[in-house]
Amino acid sequence: MALPEQPSAYEDCYDYYERAKASPKGIRVLFDNERDAGMFRMRMNMARVIQRREAMRIYARTDPAYGKSEFDSLKCAVRPTAELDGRFWVYIEPWKSDNLGFEELE
Q1: At what angle do helices 34-58 and 11-22 cross, to 10 degrees?
Q2: Residue 68 exposure: Cα atoms within 13 Å on the Cβ side
Q3: Backbone phi, then psi, for 17, in 5-degree steps?
Q4: Angle CA 95–46–21, to nearest 5
Q5: Virtual torsion, Cα 20, 25, 29, 33, nearest 10 deg
């Protein structure tokens, strides 16, 4: 199934992105099944693709906003509920690294 390419088809997605961006740890959205959660995650990702395309049209290649979405700092992941009852969450969270440290290579 092809997803629509009009920004107006993703108003709910942009609303969830805004809410997740405003929250330090992000948000999650509950679905009755994995298929619906997966479709929602695809729509969320398509909403970002549309923003990136629009940014390529609006901004010059030299502009830092060229080809970027304001929501690129967030990731979407599908996870089952703790009850394993067939329902699934879509987590919308900031990208972060859980590494223990780093060191420069010589």
Answers
A1: 90
A2: 13
A3: -60, -45
A4: 35
A5: 140
Q: What is the pLDDT of residue 90?
A: 98
Express each pLDDT in 18-63 by its tens digit.
999 999 999 999 999 999 999 999 999 999 999 999 999 999 999 9
**Strand 27-31 to 74-80 pairing:** unpaired
CA–CA distance, 34 with 89 (Å, rounded to integer): 9
φ/ψ (deg, to 5) at 80: -70, 155
Q: Which pTM was predicted? A: 0.86
Residue 12 is predicted with a pLDDT of: 97
In the chain, the amino acid numbered 54 is: E
Structural element, H or E, at residue 12: helix 11-22
pLDDT at 1: 66
